[in-house]
Amino acid sequence: MKQRILAALVGLAIVIPLLAFGGPIAVDLVVLLVLLVGLDEFTRMAIPDERKFALGALVATGLPLYGLLVWGQPNHALGFMAFSLVGLFSAAMLKTRDTESGARAAVCLATGLVYIPLLLAFVPWVRRFDHGLAWISLILVVTWAGDTGAYFAGRAFGRTKLFPRVSPNKTWEGAIGGLLLSIVGACVVKALGLPELSWAHAIILGALVDIIAILGDLVESMFKRAFGVKDSGWIMPGHGGILDRVDSLLFTAPATWAYVTVFGLSSAA
What we know:
By secondary structure, this protein is mostly helical. Helix content is 78%, strand content 3%.
């Protein structure tokens, strides 16, 4: 537990100043670093027998895709992504030793391209909203509040398993505790940094982000179980890998961007 707390404090000491003072470009670069480490972890989990080939293929396609999404034009990114999928499918078929391995590698490569570069690109998009720092803070605070509330409520009241096939430790009681604390967290961010956001939207966003965060965590747990690993990596002592830390963010950033955009709650800076 001490190791987990120390690693978390070190991470916060690095991330919070970058978010607060670095501006959108700092966020872009931090996310880019997370992307590279995440691709390495994903290929180690999903395609260990052909890891070097898989990592090279995903870096060669994932970095340009991220660059086009963040600094380029979305329609160019869409075309590049289609071209990349054609290349990844073809490379997997030609590189692997048999048909079954090729099909599995093709699916894993396509999943890696969508799961990491595409979904992570929504973090810089959210940062570019008006009051982007507050929107990023809302995502992080709600996610952390949900994790904290679920942990303590689960320990105190947890009886009913939420989804034991994927994550045997999660309970419905913990999820409800996390949901309540997430709504409180969203309301605090609204009061401090998003005064123009209505209380109704703050409450809905708190609940939505928490539910989506749980789904993100469960999906990554599903991947780890399918690939037979306990943690996605080792880079964060006591916390596993980068993907273990950003699994919720991969889902909550796109959900927040979509909600804010659909309801016109902010405009891009």
